[in-house]
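Let us practice reading a record.
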Amino acid sequence: MNVRKVVHEYIDENPLWSGIDIDKVCFYGEGGIFDSLDLVTFIIELEQRLSISLSTDKAFSHRNSPFSSIESLEEFIKELQDEHSNNRN
């Protein structure tokens, strides 16, 4: 499933963030739209919708949070999917 589409659907479902341009917003960190509880909820929702675990040591050991922007999130999920595919082979 398309990460950008899933994020867009999640954002639009929440009245606090509905209509926010996900390409121009910081999700978490300085100036981010999520506080820590929002971030946890966001991660859980993405995990369920994408059937992937995002709550990994790797996610929280990155120098720059993979949850800060749509681009960093897409890149992080692609890395996880690639690793998962390589481990299957």
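A brief commentary: The mean pLDDT is 87.
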